[in-house]
Amino acid sequence: MADMDPQGIPSPEPDNKPAAGNDSQPTPRWMQPPRIFAQRMGTTVRQRWARRLCLSPLLASTIALPQTWAAQDLAIPEQPNMPGLAQMIDHEQWDEAYAYVRQQQNAIVPEVRAIVSDPRTSGTAMEIAYGFLRKVPTLESATLLAQGLGKGGGRTSVFGLIENPRPDVYPILKAKLQPPKEEENKNLLLTMAQIPVPPEQRIADLKPYVGAKDYGVRVGAVFGLALLDDPGSMELMTRALGADDRDGKTVPLMIFYQFRAWRTPKFVPVLIPVLNDPMPIKDIGLRRYNADGSESAMTPQELRYLRARDYALNIIVKTLKIDVPFKLEDDVTYSKEQRELVKQKLRDLGYTVTDEPHPVTNGV
């Protein structure tokens, strides 16, 4: 279970040291020899820094990039008269880049636009460039983030727009919507739901997607409508959380886990029954390490899972800031005693608490 991303909190500026947990061995800094510009078309940004600068999952407010990406995927082409920010990204000068962004503020927007508009810029370098816009909460940066949503901005665009919501970008986002039978980006709908334009307009735009072909988009539409208090949407959230398959239940739980807009007391009642839901969501400990150093698959009795009830407990306790005598950690299973303690504290807070999970459904 990854930490939650507190939407609206700018990502911290990294210090210049290896990212803990990402590299098992310190990576020596590679100093490339002087080369002419024509020879430097493949200059790379090291993967561990890309993982740190883009978006790490959830609470760290940066998203972890897949560790399987090859180094060449992180390339940014160098050329004569390259903008200053592009050079800093290219040369991994992160301290200088953050200082430059603080100094230039809105003036970096044209530089980022130049970087992301170059067809030779890699997807990872694009997301790094978009990430710097999160430090510049202006209309111009929000506009570029909106343009990048679904086109290289990744979840950087999503989080940046939630942190800096501007009514002016809503038409840009709406124009990106595909018909319900074709739309596949639930984050687009979740972002639109949080842009401050009249609720009636957002409801009208989101409602057709409750019937979308893509399951994640349907759930995204339901969550957006629930955020806007559309009648019947809370019942649909309940159906989503009662899904009878692992993938169907994971989608709504991860929306709660990733987006602060839904981590409010308003939505705690719909999560309480999930405290009783044993459905396995994530495998833990798929390999057994033997005494001789070899590995073997665990038996069914040895397998451990992160279950729906573990996600619910983590989300509820963090949402309500409940004082508990145990530590909330990632990738852990909570005991029945710990769940019962949280239930009692919910009763003390005035919530109606059940000992049953949501009725099983086929989702939404």
UniProtKB/TrEMBL annotation:
Disordered: region residues: 1-33
Name of protein: Outer membrane protein ImpK/VasF, OmpA/MotB domain
Lineage of producing organism: Bacteria, Pseudomonadati, Pseudomonadota, Betaproteobacteria, Burkholderiales
